Amino acid sequence: MKTLQERIHHIQNLLHLDDAQMAEKLGLEEETYQRGIETSSSEILELLCTTFGVSLSYLEEGKGSIFCERPLPIADILAFRDARNWKQFHSPKDLAISLSLESSELLECFQWSGEDVHAKKKQKQMEEELADILIYSVLFADSIGVDIPTIIERKLRKNAEKYDVKKAYGSAKKYTEL
Q1: pTM over 0.85
Q2: Complete DSSP assignment for 69-112
Q3: Rounded distance, CA 56 to CA 53, Å?
Q4: Distance CA 1, CA 66 (A)
């Protein structure tokens, strides 16, 4: 695909969406969406990347994979647990406690950091704590019998209704304050 517009229309076709549906999923008016495509709006590019997992390098240069999503290794996490016969200990209550504890360990990376709120010196520790949180999240989802992509998609749809792009864009206010 030679042009950005052609690449965006190709993505639209892969997603089986027309302009109106695409605009709606991005939280935009159809005219705004079409104008954004014509002008190669950076806002449109960012929305495509965050909403649909489209690779920015594909959009800008037409190179590489179209989508940049990588699935969580859910089967590997469950196999790790099952190989050790730990499922018997994984009640929703205990997993919720573990999630909270791991989240607190992530917060420790920022404790006493002063102005350095990014705590770059603790990048490796932050990665490990985040991995623990994600692993416990997968185990918790399994223990209550839910599919992670499904509940995330539902929550994103619900949040999209609460946080309309036009009202929420660039604002840190809660949806009740918009």
Answers
A1: no
A2: -----HHHHHHHHHHTT-GGG--HHHHHHHHHHHHHHHHHTTTT
A3: 9
A4: 12
